[in-house]
Specification:
The chain is mainly alpha-helical and about 550 residues long. The protein has one domain. Helices cover about 75% and strands about 0% of the residues. The chain contains 21 helices and no strands. Helix 4 runs parallel beside helix 16 and helix 12 runs antiparallel to helix 13.
């Protein structure tokens, strides 16, 4: 670490070579904080049903260590090492809780504890495949680095503020204070902050969806969720989104349709890489689905034709789910991973798969989406810290080091889950959504009208997504809002959009940077309040 610092101090700039995730100091801290992040994730998802974003915590730890007057810690003053540290702890938190423990709880609750270890192997394969795919897809026309990725913006601005100080730091601190205060009064400050960063069309539909879901019973006398309306809208929008991405790669959608903000910055991932990644990713999902069917023994419960259908459907579902979750995370900073998994579970039930193959299918699909979205936030943070000041090669090198940090975190998370799952399950501690999945599988589709409702509401979902185009993703974001029961967040999003419109109208582009820094503070304050509030709640 010392050599990089000498280069930086000699010419006043960042070192030309990106710090490595395998440097002894970075590697040790990554392992320690990944273990901590995994414990946090496991505790919170089993006892409260949530998984907090710990990226800000990791960044703060690295910043504080860099200021300790000890020579071997000085290397952590580098914003790029801080980025590697926050990438690791964040990846371990979501990896352990959402991508590993959640999937293995499903067969256990189905009365098959013997399938926990095979399911853990399959979930790890799905998680690692998702991470590899996002590393390859990030900063392409499908998932541009210049897109919103709001939690990533919050992390990057926190790191920048700690490094630069001055007006930027003051604005961020004001935002954090506002985020903490608003969260105390039960205002969704992350949703409010997102409104200052993301695509206004997409976020408006997200807010409308949140309000419709929240007030449908009181306004219209119907429960949208009970009627599977959000699920149908997401199915339709998701299918059209996949078609739009394919069309985009084949050049049938104009470049303008997919343009992202700050489009003067050249993309670092070309379309040939995107197409190759999607093809290889699908093949990997097929391979791992076949492996899971073999080692769990579920192949014995299906005919050869149905087994082939199960393998192909599992691979398609994983690919579709990660794209849907990724697009939601990219535009809104929220991702309905549980709901999307439930959608493909219901579709699997419609296709007539037996109960245990459905349980394994559900765990396999659930293993990837959160890891994909969370890594997107971390890569966005790194992109913001690197892209404007450095070359394309430096950005690619930094992204690869983040990918290594993330994989180290995943390995730590895998070890933590492997040694602790029995302690949690023996105390009847499971992610709450596992019980939803199991209850759905065991109940079956006793009401054939559910299928018809999903297919019927897929039509408007598809139309809205098609009308909005691939740049706005309004169908996906409307469905995301409909799947989340949080009307307060809907009001916060729409209020933020209104303020953003008025301020931009009055001050023009000069207001963009201050609003984004304040927004990052709102999101960071909300994340800190949620994290520490959850920790204190666990202690009570």
């Amino acid at each position: 670490m010392a050599s990089d610092l000498k280069v930086a101090q000699a010419d006043g700039s960042e070192p030309s070579r990106h710090p490595s995730a395998l440097e002894p100091g970075v590697l040790i801290l990554n392992i320690v904080l990944s273990a901590l992040g995994a414990i946090i994730g496991l505790q919170l998802i089993t006892q409260l049903g949530i998984t907090p974003n710990t990226a800000i915590i990791g960044a703060l730890v690295a910043m504080l260590l860099g200021r300790v007057p000890v020579s071997f810690l000085r290397g952590f003053r580098s914003i790029h090492r801080q980025n590697l540290i926050q990438t690791a702890i964040s990846g371990a938190t979501f990896g352990a809780a959402n991508s590993l423990l959640l999937p293995i709880g499903i067969p256990y609750l189905m009365g098959r504890p013997d399938l926990v270890w095979p399911m853990l192997a399959g979930a790890a394969a799905g998680m690692l495949t998702d991470a590899w795919m996002l590393w390859r897809l990030f900063d392409s026309r499908v998932f541009p680095g210049a897109a919103a990725w709001p939690p990533g913006v919050a992390t990057a601005e926190a790191i920048r503020a700690g490094d630069e100080g001055g007006k930027r730091a003051r604005l961020l601190l004001y935002g954090i204070a506002g985020g903490l205060l608003g969260s105390y009064f039960n205002i969704s400050m992350s949703a409010f902050g997102v409104a200052f960063i993301g695509n206004m069309w997409a976020l408006a539909m997200f807010g409308i969806g949140l309000l419709l879901r929240g007030y449908s019973t009181s306004l219209f006398g119907i429960d949208l969720n009970a009627l599977y309306i959000p699920h149908g809208v997401m199915v339709g929008a998701g299918m059209v989104a996949l078609i739009q991405i394919i069309a985009l790669l084949r050049g049938k959608v104009g470049k303008q349709a997919a343009a992202a903000p700050e489009e003067e910055l050249e993309l670092t991932t070309d379309e040939a890489t995107v197409g190759k990644t999607l093809r290889i990713g699908f093949c990997l999902y097929v391979l791992f689905a076949a492996m899971i069917a073999l080692i769990t023994g579920v192949y014995a419960e299906m005919s050869l034709a149905k087994l082939v259908l199960w393998v192909v459907f599992a691979a398609f579902s994983c690919l579709a789910a990660e794209i849907i979750v990724g697009l939601s995370a990219m535009h809104a900073g929220w991702f309905p991973a549980f709901a999307v998994t439930l959608i493909f579970l219901v579709l699997g039930m419609v296709m007539g798969f037996p109960q245990m193959p459905l349980a394994i299918l559900t765990g396999y699909i659930a293993s990837g989406g959160p890891a994909f979205a969370d890594m997107g936030y971390d890569l966005k943070a790194g992109w913001m810290l690197r892209r404007r000041e450095h070359s394309l090669e430096y950005e690619r090198a930094g992204r690869f080091q983040q990918y290594l940090s993330n994989n180290i975190a995943f390995m730590v998370a895998l070890v933590m889950v492997a040694i602790s799952w029995q302690a949690y399950f023996s105390q009847d501690l499971f992610p709450p959504v596992d019980r939803v999945f199991v209850a759905t599988i065991q109940a079956g589709l006793s009401d054939p009208s559910i299928t018809m409702r999903i297919l019927l509401w897929a039509i408007p979902g598809a139309l809205i997504q098609w009308i909005g185009g691939p740049s706005r993703q309004i169908g996906i974001l409307l469905a995301t809002g409909l799947l989340i029961l949080n009307p307060n967040a809907g009001w916060a999003v729409l209020a933020g959009l209104l303020i953003r419109f008025v301020v931009t109208k009055k001050y023009g582009e000069a207001a963009t940077s201050p609003m984004e820094i304040l927004a990052a503070g709102f999101i960071a304050g909300d994340a800190l309040y949620s994290f520490f509030g959850s920790v204190f709640k666990l202690r009570k």
